[in-house]
């Protein structure tokens, strides 16, 4: 990202040059009135610095460059140079050139022969090369690069397309001080020649696939010079060697690798390390005595397997600003004495351990925290009183911390302007919530508590609001002003009254969950304004009337659950056309009647169709075979969404919501979440369907569950039904079907069990004899089909994960708000959607 402001220059450039009259010309980000490189520049033979980064110049020919004989520093970053074939070579021929910055310039790669050919008469002074984000392949870069073997000191080739191993020859660049190969596809080992790089201060290799063993990798690196070693996000294995051998080391990043084993027992030297990142590995055992690392400012070891106590290890770390310890197995009590010396602390993440935090309400700590993340620590019954002393936090997560209390009024009153994230979920907090109008609080999670009373006013820039699983009551019209709301979860409360007709305010909404409340009346027309909503559930309310026609504007819907209401009318014809992205359509237990719309089959991504317990009549449409979401051999993988990039994840406040679906499963209502992506099911049971079961249904090869019971279906059971090999259950009971197949039609289903097959189902009761006098015909029917007649799929359900990242569409000012949050602790906070958005922008646009 560049932050240059664009300035439009109405006056001719020569005037500016005349005014500046200096050997340094910095026009970065400037919008020129004429886009051509002003030819006046080419006569400035005294010019030493030329910075046109992100400006609007268009550069095609590069002859003007060759006359700038004094030029030392040239920056043309973020300018499209795809047609300036010889620019790079002309630049390195400038006799005085030292630094060349060409970030994200769409440099031509192999198509430009000149890039490959040796550069005659190149400058001996050329030292700093920055070709970040040009997507150049290894075979174009390497031969060219090694021509400057003797002179280069700093190389940045981040975000290019370097694959294969790191070339040995890099190790012959004796003057190399910084080498940045971030985000390429490099694999294998660090070449042993690297031990010759005795001036190397910074080595940055994050986001590659290096898979060396860490002790051997350390053996190849110069010990005295290295100050920054960044190997984040590789496949590096082995245990952690004594890194105090690197005597100058200040920053060491080994996060997101495959490290295992425990910490070295002792360290050779006292270290001057400032930043140590070991997060996301599999390190186990105890933390060592950290007194050799008294200089540390940032220490991260989240998501490892470390155990033992943490508290007394912290005491000597009096310079510590950031501590990330979440998701380990630490135990014990952390009390005031352990943290009293940590007066610089701003970032504290102890969440997801078994820690008890025992700090008295009266204590006044010496630190002012910015990030307070204590999820799953035990804080005691009462709301932590010491928080009263913290005036500057932007993140507070005290979810699942055992609080059984109401929230003191000083807390609400003290919520400061800078707070961005508040998570109070999964406690037993009771009482009402006052209006929270001040401040900007984009992410609020108060779910799973005992809050009562009306839904208060929330800050206008709330993006995520989760109040589910509480006892809020009354209407929800107080939310109508939250116009940038994206995720709203009010499920499982006692909310009542009509749904407000203000949905047109929420055009950024992606998740709307109102299920299990007491809403009445019809679904308002304005619901159609939610054009980005991808999940909408109003299950289990008392909604009446027909589905509003406007719903067909919600064309991003992937899950629609309106089950357990009193909705009526025909299932609309437009479903198939407008809601073509639907994956889950769940309308059970309503009063829907008439026949099924034929274009239902146009919902070709559909995986779950539940229309049970309605009054639908007519035939089952033959076109079901056209629903490719159900015919595919494995569920459509395009519905899996994984937004994990190479960004460093510290605390992740993602705009992520995992789909849930309630399904009738072998007679029980179950919630499917993680495995939902694997469930492919049709439930049309308990309706008034008649006619035959279309044989086309047997081509829905991905079906895991099919329930057509309790209808008036007649005719034979389709012969090929045994082809549905994934079927976990098939319920055809309480129809008037003829048994038309023999046992061999199930031969392809080795795990299928139950009558009429020879295999008995594991864990089943003795099958009841049909001669048993007490069994009514109906019961017998049920027993035959429901209970005894299913396959148990074991494999599929163990794996699989299906999350949904709603597309968070935010204002520009928003993005910056988040980035400001980043800056507070050295880019440590990540809002996944945000950064990936920025990243995509960076890749696709030349700003
Ligand atoms: C640049 O210098 C050349 C030769 O010294 C001269 O002919 C030309 O007019 C100059 N161009 C500008 C724009 O000053
Ligand atoms: C290289 O420099 C020599 C002498 O300075 C000159 O004769 C020759 O033309 C130059 N070559 C190129 C390709 O510029
Ligand atoms: C706190 O710091 C002081 C001075 O730096 C030191 O004497 C004391 O031992 C430290 N306390 C703990 C518990 O380490
Ligand atoms: C709040 O905390 C809970 C428990 O730690 C977590 O599951 C949930 O995702 C958090 N909410 C948000 C919005 O981040
Ligand atoms: C099913 O798809 C086939 C091929 O795409 C098409 O010809 C047929 O008309 C479709 N059937 C229905 C009922 O939509
Ligand atoms: C099929 O649906 C009916 C309700 O319509 C339910 O009672 C029955 O248990 C279901 N069958 C199975 C196997 O889940």
From TrEMBL:
InterPro entries attached to this UniProt entry: Leu-rich_rpt (IPR001611), Leu-rich_rpt_typical-subtyp (IPR003591), LRR_dom_sf (IPR032675), RLP23-like (IPR046956)
Protein keywords: Cell membrane, Glycoprotein, Leucine-rich repeat, Membrane, Receptor, Repeat, Signal, Transmembrane, Transmembrane helix
Subcellular location: Cell membrane
An example Gene Ontology CC term for this record: plasma membrane
Topology with respect to the bilayer: Single-pass type I membrane protein
GO aspect biological process, one term: defense response
Keyword presence, Glycoprotein: yes
Domain of life: Eukaryota
Transmembrane segments annotated in the record for this chain: 7-25, 789-810
A Pfam family this chain is assigned to: LRR_8
Xref: PANTHER family: LRR RECEPTOR-LIKE KINASE, LRR RECEPTOR-LIKE SERINE_THREONINE-PROTEIN KINASE FLS2
Family, as annotated: Belongs to the RLP family.
Protein name: Leucine-rich repeat-containing protein
Gene source species: Artemisia annua
The organism's taxonomic lineage, starting at the top: Eukaryota, Viridiplantae, Streptophyta, Embryophyta, Tracheophyta
